[in-house]
Design a protein that fits this description.
Strand order of the largest sheet: 2-1-7-6-5-4-3
Low-confidence stretches: 120-139
Number of domains: 1
Order of helices and strands: HHEEHEEEEE
Strand content: 35-45%
Largest sheet: 7 strands, antiparallel
Radius of gyration: 14 Å
Shape: globular
Helix content: 25-40%
Mean pLDDT: 76
CATH topology: Nuclear Transport Factor 2, Chain: A
Structural class: alpha+beta
Number of helices: 3
């Protein structure tokens, strides 16, 4: 039997995979989720609250022409934390190489919260370029 936080993370990835942003909005993210994407690219910046994070996802999907995907490999979870091992894939018009990279998503369950809030998704973009997408919550 899987831990409830593992089930929650798996459902979040499944919801993203089927494009069910309402499930992410209502069942996975807390209202005060914060997502930070460093750099100077078209999606760099801070996203605060569920709606801005969902809009960020929509922008990622738009920029990749709908090719962006997350393949969930495994989830490790207990009462306080969850770690998801993922492969991130996507293509952008005019770019020579498609993105295909391994990453992790770490989350912490906040006391008295109904959802697991992701904290960070470190991944590299290959050729020495790196990204750390940081998600903070629950101030």
């Amino acid at each position: 039997m899987a831990h409830p936080n593992e089930d929650l993370v798996r459902e979040g990835f499944a919801a993203f995979g089927r494009g069910d942003m309402d499930a992410l909005r209502k069942q996975i993210f807390t209202d005060d989720v914060r997502w930070h994407n460093p750099g100077r690219g078209p999606i760099s910046g801070d996203y605060e609250g569920t709606e801005q994070v969902i809009q960020y996802f929509a922008r990622v999907i738009e920029l990749t022409g709908g090719t962006f995907s997350l393949e969930l490999h495994d989830v490790l979870a207990n009462d306080e934390h969850a770690v998801a091992l993922v492969t991130v894939r996507g293509e952008r018009a005019g770019k020579q190489r498609p993105l295909s990279d391994n990453g992790t998503m770490v989350g912490v369950r906040e006391p008295n919260r109904a959802s697991l809030t992701p904290l960070a998704v470190p991944m590299s973009l290959g050729a020495g370029h790196g990204v750390l997408v940081t998600v903070e919550c629950c101030g």
